[in-house]
Amino acid sequence: MAGMEESRIGKGTKVSGNLHFHGAVRIEGEADGEIVGDEIMIAEGAVVAAKITATRLIVAGTVSGEIVVRQRLELLPSARLRCTVNTPSLILNEGAQFDGDCRMPRERMAA
Question: What pTM value is reported for the model?
Answer without folding.
Answer: 0.90
